[in-house]
Amino acid sequence: MNTPSPSSSNPSSAAASSKNSADLVERYLQAVRFWLPRSHRQEGLITELGEDLRSQIEDKESELGHPLDKAETGEILKRCGSPMMVAGRLGPQRHLIGPALFPIYEFVLKMVLLWILVPVFVFIVGPANVASSGGSWGLAVASTIAQLWYGLFIAAGIITLVFAIIERTNSQLGTEIKWDPLKLPPVRKEPGKPSRLKAACEFGFNIFGLIWLLLVPYYPFLILGPAAAFLKAGPIVHTFYLPFVFLSIVALVRSGITLARPQWGWFPLLSELLQSVLMLTLLHYMIQAITKAPGGFPFVVLEDAVRDSPKYFKLVAIVNVSLLVSVAATWLGVGIAAVIQVWALLKYLRNRPTPPRGMVSLILR
Amino acid sequence: MTNGTQAAPEILENLKLELRRGCLIVAVLAQLRSEQYGYTLRKALADDGLAIDEGTLYPLLRRLETQGLLVSQWREEDKRNKRFYRLSPAGELILKQLLEEWESINASLNKILQEATQ
Asked: Which of A13, A143, A351, B46 could hold A7 in an S-S bridge, CB 3.0 to 4.6 Å?
């Protein structure tokens, strides 16, 4: 006979139980999704599995007469199997390594090849080869790539062999994995959704930045401080002022759209990347202009009143060199940021939630 | 590694699995003569003695749909999105042919078994 659960008599605790149960199912589905190969990470399959689990929970609830608590939901999930096992069964058919072991094989392979072997070669073996090459960089890089290729091949072979042996000798291994549904990690936030507060702050700063940039020609002390008494903007600033104003307007429009359309998860990533590319192009032309006319294309020059005063010559040279170094450092920083942005955009595109086939019309209805 | 007595249950298990695999396809196609979604289909099969786990059923349904034997549609029921499956005209034809094949195998097997007992 079933003992009535305390949650059946208390509506608020029943609602909490139901929420906990739904949360546990979401965590379980997230874990299954993690183990599915990317090519099989179809939302339709996960939605169907989720629907099946929710139907099982509903049936159990009608049988028991109360909403299931976490432990009872955990029992249903346990019966369904560990997320890795379920992903193995839902994934494509494997031959050398069976479905039960394949997710863990793929995980180990990725960990060893991408996160251990490649960094070891890039940060240890590569620099060591370069150091011992006696200046012939090309040879050192080619030798490192050849060694890396060989290492990847051997490591992948050994891992595959080990898993194939496990598969042949212990077919029960996959089913014996101990796991606890209650210890599954919490559901992660949907990727790519920007924070409203961050977007609002960015918009505010961009307005402030544009106003500041528009005021600089009229109030040079805003950029030069007390040095505005004897320095003024040089030819390079005049040449590149309008493109920088344009870039600030682009940044303002970009942050405005991000704020107004938070549902466009792709937009901040793509627009940030485009802005970085524009910035890199502009800085590239700026550096080229300076290096093609060294000394003749300064950022700042002396005010007419002090033009012939030798005590300022050294100062203006120092300021110009410092600004050139700053521009080069900014170019490098924006370049690194652009690489990170490309990575983030690719990651978003690969992981973005796609509605199951045939569900688009359902959502639009 | 495979000594007779120890491997026997495993061999039986594998043979049962092989036997079930083909039967399951026929059973799924037969059940889907009327429209059902995953869970009700699984329940109906289990009630008739052919339990099938989630990890086996959904890829099978996907495969049968890709082969054109099933058609599916996402619909909202009880405020939840469910994928309903039913047999396609091509599936109906294949099911008919499979059942004929089943009858023929069954008849042959019965005949063989009768001859063996005589």
From this structure: A13
